[in-house]
Write a structure and sequence with these properties.
Blueprint (H helix, E strand, L loop, with lengths): L10 H18 L8 H36 L4
């Protein structure tokens, strides 16, 4: 099951990832494929955004929720 179907990422991030996959395949194989600098920068930004969203921000949000839940606990 794909990440978008499991609710890990939304449809937009999935689309970004799909473009990364397509361009990775072009770069990984011996072809004459060329990339514009602007395209390379965009692809880098998309990959960074996906990693931040899935790994960094998800963990930060979970930590935030834990702190908020602790505030709701009755004080002893």
């Amino acid at each position: 099951m794909r990440s978008v179907e499991r609710g890990i990422i939304d449809k937009r991030l999935h689309e970004w990832g799909d473009e990364l996959r397509k361009h990775r395949n072009l770069a990984a194989h011996a072809t004459d494929a060329r990339f514009a600098l602007a395209d390379a920068k965009n692809l880098y930004d998309f990959s960074t955004a996906i990693c931040d969203y899935v790994f960094v921000l998800t963990e930060k949000f979970e930590d935030f929720k834990k702190r908020q839940a602790k505030k709701q606990e009755p004080q002893s």
